[in-house]
Specification:
CATH topology of chain A: Cytochrome-c3 Hydrogenase, chain B
Helix content of chain A: 40-55%
Number of helices of chain C: 6
CATH class of chain A: Mainly Alpha
Largest sheet of chain A: 3 strands, antiparallel
Radius of gyration of chain A: 21 Å
Structural class of chain C: mainly alpha
Helix content of chain C: 40-55%
Chains: A alpha+beta (about 350), B alpha/beta (about 170), C mainly alpha (about 190)
Strand order of the largest sheet of chain A: 1-2-3
CATH superfamily of chain A: Cytochrome-c3 Hydrogenase, chain B
Strand order of the largest sheet of chain C: 1-3-5
Order of helices and strands of chain C: HHHEEHEHEEH
Oligomer: heterotrimer
Number of strands of chain C: 5
Number of helices of chain A: 15
Shape of chain A: globular
Distance between the termini of chain C: 39 Å
Distance between the termini of chain A: 40 Å
Number of domains of chain A: 1
Strand content of chain C: 5-15%
CATH architecture of chain A: Orthogonal Bundle
Number of domains of chain C: 2
Radius of gyration of chain C: 21 Å
CATH architecture of the largest domain in chain C: 3-Layer(aba) Sandwich
Chain lengths: ~350, ~170, ~190
C-alpha cells in the first residue's frame, strides 16, 4: 500500500492550541511523525527586555494560560535569586496554597479536554463544573479568573480573603469525594480502557534521554519530582509522596495525574493549616545587580526553568525560558510509531499540551 | 565555597579544594578538573546543589560525553544563548537525578563566529533546543541532524533576539 | 466524459461537474433569483429563515490562546452557551461564525485567511479578547499582527483580557440582534 503524509492541524479539534502534526501512514498504521510548532510565537523573550522587572509579571502569566500562577511564581523566584531578596514565611505559604489549587484546576481542565476527545462528554461536563470551585477561590484571592498577576518579587500582591481557611478545607474535602467518582466513571468505561491501556508506550531509557519531565516521566517509572528532590519555597516542610506508575502507557499517565490531584489536596490542607501570621510582601530593589539568576519549578506539565541575566539597570538583559512541553513534544514520534491513526488523539492528549508555553 | 582562578587553573583550584569537605558538588568539580585540566577555566558553587563551570568550546562534546557516562548526569535541562558586547555565551544546564545536582556549563564563542558542536547525539532532548537557539539567536551547531527554523516562518531572514535587531519587516 | 447542455427532451444529459454547476446556477438565476417567484418566496419565508439563522449560530472549533479557555468554559455547565443554539463544529464548511480568540502571528496569518475563505456565506466574524482586537499585551512584538481586522472584516468586538464567559455570551446575543436588524432574503439577497 502506498504511504502518504497527512496533516493533522493547525485547526483540528484534537489540538488544544495551534500546532501541526504530520504523520506518514501506511494504510492505518503510523510510520513516521513530525510535529511542527510556532503558530503562536509572540516573541516574549524579546518583549521582556523593554519592560521593568515588575512589568514582566503579567507577560509571564500568559506563557501557559492553563497554569498561569506557576509561571509568574517561577519568574518571581528567579528574580529573587538574582536580587537576593528574602521572602517572608506567610507569603511562601500563601504561594504554595495558590499553586496547588492551580495544579488541581489545570489537571481538571486537561481531564475535561481528554474525556471530550475520547468521546466521554459526561467527563467534560462534570470536571468543568468542579473546576469552577477552585477558580472561585483563586478569583477571591487575586481578582481574576484566568491570568492572575498575583505573585510579586518579594511576596504576593494582597493577603488572603477572610474565611479563606474554611473555604479551602471545604473545597479539598469536596474534591476528594469527587475524585473517587471520576475514577469509577473512567475505569468503568470499557471504551476508555480499550483506548488507553497498552497505547503509546514510552520506555524508561527513552524518556530519560529525550528530556521528558513531569507526569509522562513519572508514568514511565522514574521517581523524580522537583518538589521532593530539589525543593524550593517551603516544600521541605510539607509531607507528601510523588506519584509514579511503572507501565508507561496512556493509562499510566492518566493515573499519575489523578494521584497528583489527591496529593495536591493534601498539600493545600497542610499549607492552609500551618500558615503563620506576619507580612505578606517585602519591597524589592528597583535595580538588579550584574549577574545571573536561576529558578526551577515543577509545573503541572513538567520541569520549568528560567535563566535571568541582569546588567545593573531596572530592565532585564536576557530572560530564557525552558518549557516542558517543547521538549516532550519532540519525543512524540517515539510514542506514535507503530500505532494506528485513531490512537493519535489519546497519545497526544495524554501529554497535556499547552501551546502557549511551547511557542513563547 | 567559591574559588576563582584564571591564571593557572589546575594548581590554584586544587589547593583550595583540598581544604573543604568532600561534598558531591566538590566531587564533580574535582572530576572535571582532573579530566580536562586545560579546558576548564573557572568554576563556582552557586547554591546548594548547583555548580557552575566555564569550559573552552573545543572540548564541549568530549566533556558532555564524560559528564553523562562517568559522572551520571542523565538529563539535559536547558540550552540558552546570551549575547554580550564581545562574545556569545552558550549555557548548558545538566541535571543528575540520582545525586540531586545541577551543573551549569558555560562556553563562549567570538562575536563573528558563533558556532559550537552539537550535543544532540548525547542527549536527544537537545535537538529542538539547539534548533531554537539557531532560529532566534543565530548560533550554528555543527553535526546537528536537521538545523532549520522551528518557531518562525521558514523564509524569515533575521535572528530576532540579537541586540541589533530593529523590528525587521 | 462529454460535456454540454442537453437540449432536446428524451436525450440523456451528460455533464462534467463544472458544467453541471453552471447549468444549475443558470436555472436558479432565471427561475428564482430574478423573477417574481423568488421575491415571493423570500417575502413569505424571510422572517422564518432569519429566526432560524440567528438562533443556531455555529462557531468554528478554533482556540488560539487564553480566551479559548474561556470559550470552552462558556459551553460548560455554569455559563451554558448551548441554550442560545451555539454548537461548535470542526470544519469551516459547516460554520457561520469565525471566533478569533488570541493573537495572530505572522506564521498563522495565511492559514486564518484561508479558513475565512472556506466558510460559506452568510458568515460573521467575532474578535474576542484584546489580542484579536489590537494585538493586546503583545502589540509591540515583531511577530504578532496588531489586530485581526487588518485582513479579515470583523462584526463584533468583545473586550477583556481574558474576556469573561459572560461577555462572550453577551457578544452572541449582540450578534443575534445584528442578524435580526439586517434581514436579507436568502434567495434574492434583498
Amino acid at each position: 500500500m502506498a504511504e502518504m503524509w497527512i496533516n493533522m492541524g493547525p485547526q483540528h479539534p484534537m489540538t488544544h492550541g495551534l500546532w501541526n502534526l504530520r504523520v506518514k501512514v501506511d494504510g492505518e498504521t503510523i510510520v513516521d511523525a513530525q510535529p511542527e510548532v510556532g503558530y503562536l510565537h509572540r516573541g516574549i523573550e524579546k518583549l521582556v527586555e523593554g519592560r521593568t522587572y515588575t512589568q514582566v509579571i503579567p507577560i509571564t502569566d500568559r506563557l501557559c494560560y492553563g497554569s498561569s500562577l506557576t509561571w509568574s511564581h517561577l519568574y518571581c523566584l528567579t528574580a529573587e535569586n538574582l536580587m537576593g531578596v528574602e521572602v517572608p514565611p506567610r507569603a511562601e505559604y500563601i504561594r504554595v496554597a495558590a499553586i496547588e489549587m492551580q495544579r488541581i484546576a489545570s489537571h481538571l481542565m486537561w481531564l475535561a479536554a481528554y474525556a471530550a476527545d475520547l468521546g466521554l462528554m459526561l467527563g467534560f461536563i462534570y470536571t468543568m463544573r468542579d473546576r469552577e470551585i477552585f477558580i472561585d477561590l483563586l478569583q477571591a484571592m487575586s481578582g481574576s479568573r484566568l491570568t492572575y498577576n498575583y505573585p510579586r518579587i518579594g511576596g504576593v500582591a494582597h493577603d488572603v480573603p477572610p474565611n479563606f481557611e474554611r473555604d479551602a478545607l471545604r473545597a479539598c474535602s469536596y474534591m476528594e469525594k469527587k475524585l473517587k467518582e471520576y475514577e469509577d466513571l473512567f475505569d468503568g468505561s470499557k471504551v476508555f480502557m480499550m483506548r488507553n491501556v497498552d497505547v503509546g508506550l514510552l520506555k524508561k531509557e527513552d524518556a530519560m534521554n529525550l528530556g521528558v519531565t513531569g507526569p509522562p516521566l513519572r508514568a514511565s517509572g522514574v521517581k523524580y519530582d522537583l518538589r521532593k528532590d530539589m525543593p524550593y519555597s517551603i516544600y521541605p516542610e510539607l509531607n507528601f509522596e510523588p506519584a509514579t506508575h511503572p507501565d508507561g502507557d496512556c493509562y499510566a499517565r492518566y493515573k499519575v495525574r489523578m494521584d497528583e490531584m489527591y496529593t495536591s489536596c493534601k498539600l493545600i490542607r497542610q499549607a492552609v493549616q500551618k500558615m503563620p501570621k506576619g507580612k505578606w510582601r517585602v519591597v524589592a530593589p528597583r535595580n538588579a545587580p550584574v549577574g545571573t539568576g536561576l529558578g526551577r519549578v515543577e509545573d503541572p506539565r513538567g520541569e520549568g526553568v528560567m535563566y535571568l541575566v541582569g546588567d545593573g539597570s531596572d530592565r532585564p538583559y536576557r530572560l530564557k525560558i525552558r518549557s516542558p512541553i517543547f521538549v516532550t513534544v519532540s519525543a512524540a514520534p517515539k510514542m506514535l510509531i507503530g500505532y494506528k491513526l485513531a490512537d493519535v488523539v489519546a497519545i497526544m492528549g495524554g501529554l497535556d499540551m499547552c501551546i502557549g508555553e511551547t511557542d513563547r | 565555597m567559591a574559588a576563582r582562578g584564571k591564571g593557572s587553573p589546575a594548581e590554584g583550584m586544587e589547593r583550595a579544594l583540598s581544604k573543604v569537605d568532600d561534598v558531591p558538588e566538590e566531587r564533580v568539580i574535582r572530576a572535571l578538573l582532573d579530566n580536562f585540566p586545560t579546558a576548564v577555566t573557572d568554576f563556582k558553587k552557586l547554591s546548594k546543589g548547583v555548580v557552575r563551570a566555564r569550559i573552552e568550546r573545543r572540548d564541549i562534546h568530549k566533556a558532555c560525553l564524560f559528564v553523562r557516562d562517568t559522572l551520571g548526569f542523565e538529563h539535559l535541562s536547558m540550552i540558552s544563548a546570551v549575547e554580550y558586547d564581545d562574545r556569545f555565551e552558550i549555557v548548558y544546564h545538566i541535571a543528575s537525578w540520582s545525586q540531586r545536582l545541577l551543573l551549569e556549563l558555560i562556553t563562549s564563542t567570538p562575536k563573528d563566529d558563533p558556532s559550537v558542536d552539537s550535543v544532540s547525539s548525547i542527549w536527544g532532548g537537545a535537538n529542538w533546543q539547539e534548533r531554537e537557539s539557531y532560529d532566534l539567536m543565530g548560533i550554528k551547531f555543527s553535526n546537528h541532524p536537521k538545523l532549520e527554523r522551528i518557531l518562525l516562518p521558514k523564509d524569515y531572514l533575521y535572528h530576532p533576539l540579537r541586540k541589533d535587531f530593529k523590528g525587521g519587516d | 466524459m462529454k460535456g454540454g447542455r442537453g437540449g432536446q427532451p428524451g436525450q440523456v444529459l451528460a455533464f462534467s461537474s463544472k458544467d453541471f454547476l453552471k447549468w444549475c446556477d443558470g436555472a436558479l438565476e432565471g427561475v428564482l433569483r430574478k423573477s417574481a417567484v423568488g421575491s415571493g418566496i423570500d417575502w413569505l419565508l424571510k422572517d422564518f429563515f432569519n429566526w432560524a439563522t440567528r438562533n443556531s449560530i455555529y462557531p468554528l472549533h478554533f482556540g488560539i490562546m487564553c480566551c479559548a479557555l474561556e470559550m470552552a468554559v462558556a459551553s460548560a455547565p455554569r455559563f451554558d452557551a448551548q441554550r442560545m443554539g451555539v454548537i461548535y463544529r470542526s470544519t469551516p464548511r459547516q460554520c457561520d461564525v469565525l471566533l478569533v480568540n488570541g493573537p495572530v502571528s505572522k506564521k498563522l496569518k495565511p492559514g486564518l485567511r484561508r479558513l475565512y475563505d472556506q466558510m460559506p456565506e452568510p458568515k460573521w466574524v467575532i474578535a474576542m479578547g484584546e489580542c484579536a482586537i489590537s494585538g493586546g499585551p503583545f502589540w509591540q512584538s515583531y511577530s504578532v499582527v496588531p489586530g485581526v481586522d487588518q485582513f479579515i472584516p470583523v462584526d463584533i468586538y468583545i473586550p477583556g483580557c481574558p474576556a469573561r464567559p459572560e461577555a462572550l455570551i453577551d457578544g452572541f446575543i449582540k450578534l443575534q440582534n445584528l442578524i435580526k436588524e439586517n434581514k436579507k432574503g436568502l434567495l434574492t439577497g434583498k
